[in-house]
Amino acid sequence: MDFDEILAMFSPLTLTESVNLMKGTEPLLLTSRLGKNEVNSLDETCVFEVEEGSYNLAPMGYSGDPASNVNIARSVKPYAVTPPQIFMKDRITANEINRVRMAAQNPINMTLQDKNAAYNKLIGDKQQGLNRLIERRIEWLFAQVLRGKISYMSDTGRAFEHDFKLPAAVNINSEYWNKPADPGNPVHQLRHIAKYFKKLNNQRDPDLIVMGGAAGDAFMDNPYVEKWLQSAGVQIVQVRAGLAKGESLPIAVIQGSELFEYSATYEDNKGKAVPYIEDDYVYMTNSSLWRTIYGAINDFDAGNPPIVLGPRFSKMKVSEDGKALNIYVESHPLPVVTSNLCVVKAKVVD
Q1: d(CA 201, CA 51)
Q2: Which residues contact 322 (CB under 8 A, 6 or more apart)?
Q3: Which residue from 195, 218, 179, 220 is spatially nearest to 284, judged by alpha carbons?
Q4: Are 34 and 287 in contact (CB under 8 A)?
Q5: Distance, CA of 343 to CA of 164 (rounded, Å)
Q6: Judging by beta carbons within 10 Å of its beta carbon (0-12, 13-18, 19+), is residue 132 exposed, middle or buried?
Q7: Percentages of the chain per state (helix, strand, coil), in multiples of 5
Q8: How many CA atoms lie within 13 A of 241 on its CB side?
């Protein structure tokens, strides 16, 4: 198989299928727990609705009374948002292609089959690297929505902003967990917060509690928690649940909610490690209130019609000067919530 045949084998359809199979390889807590409900938009613009909190009851009257006027639409706000575009390319020079080989492989004894296998791996590694950048950005988007607003400005001045208008009711006051004289009881407080979340969300229980790194330390060092963690049931949860070490630490189940300490970080433009979520906060939510919408991708290389409905699109092209091979990966993700009461948060570290 010569190079032209190999190049033809990596069609946009093949590359797109490949990169979509790589989804979920980065062990990130928010995306894995809140990003399960995916929706593919039929257009670049994503249309969704957010229910605004209301505690109204149905009106009652006597038999024979006319119907009461109720405007349900007042409590549901529609949005039409064009998601941010993630469109990246990685460059492979012709020299890299000529020198490619598998690890520990002797270049002198390489067969054409060996060369093709090494080439395939090189393409896969490039796609995987681009995919991981996308997954970390999506995790960042989820963390932004937890705070109530996505706000982004690129180095080139490209801005994106969307405010989900979370009301003040989702910010609650809690005793600090790290005060030596009066550390409070975090377990009892989390149970009370869970009851409050249930009240806000029409008796829907939370199923996920996420603590920042400092909040997690204060929780684990709390004397009341140390006694509570001696329970055999809690220990079983710690052993059986979990993601990659260093990303998140599963601790227990409280009021039916999985409790995690989450201290994963990303690098900002200056190379500084930044936590995805605020260190001193605890967040409580229900995964059924979240969606991940992917805007349609318009590209003539996708075929006829020139549109891709899905999470990722990938293609490969030789540069105009013939000196390099560009591998492209594109995605238009937008995490959204179906209720502006989707999260309750509290600052628990002073």
Answers
A1: 10
A2: 94
A3: 195
A4: yes
A5: 11
A6: middle
A7: 35, 30, 40
A8: 20
Which of 290, 288, 342, 30 lies closest to 165 in space, CA to CA?
342
Per the CB < 8 A criterion, the answer to whether 158 and 82 are in contact is no
Spatial distance between the Cα atoms of 167 and 337, rounded to a whole number of angstroms: 14
Structure tokens at 35: 């990003």
| Angle CA 21–315–156, to nearest 5 | 100
Q: What is the CA radius of gyration of the chain?
A: 25
* SS3 category, 232: helix
Helix (H) or strand (E) holding 116: helix 112-147
> Across residues 330-347, what is the average pLDDT?
95
Q: Which of 29-38, 54-63, 111-120 has the highest mean pLDDT?
A: 29-38
Q: Determine contact, residues 25/128, Cβ cutoff 8 Å.
A: yes
Residue 306: Cβ within 10 Å count = 11
Structure token digits, residue 70? 């109720």
pLDDT > 70? residue 148: yes
What pTM, to 2 d.p., does this model score? 0.86
How, if at all, do strands 307-308 and 343-347 pair? unpaired
Residue 134 · residue 333 · CB < 8 Å: yes
pLDDT tens sequence across 210-266: 999 999 999 988 888 888 877 766 654 554 444 444 467 888 888 788 999 998 999
Give the count of beta carbons closer than 10 Å to the beta carbon of residue 282: 29
* Two structure tokens written together for 303: 């075929």
Bridge partners of residue 171, in order along the sequence: 345
**Residue ranges of E strands in 1-93:** 38-40, 46-51, 76-81, 86-93
Q: Provide the β-strand partners of residue 49.
A: 78
* Positive or negative torsion for Cα 235, 277, 244, 32: positive
pLDDT of the residue at 57? 67
Write out the H or E segment, with its range, that includes residue 172: strand 171-172
CA distance 36 to 27: 14
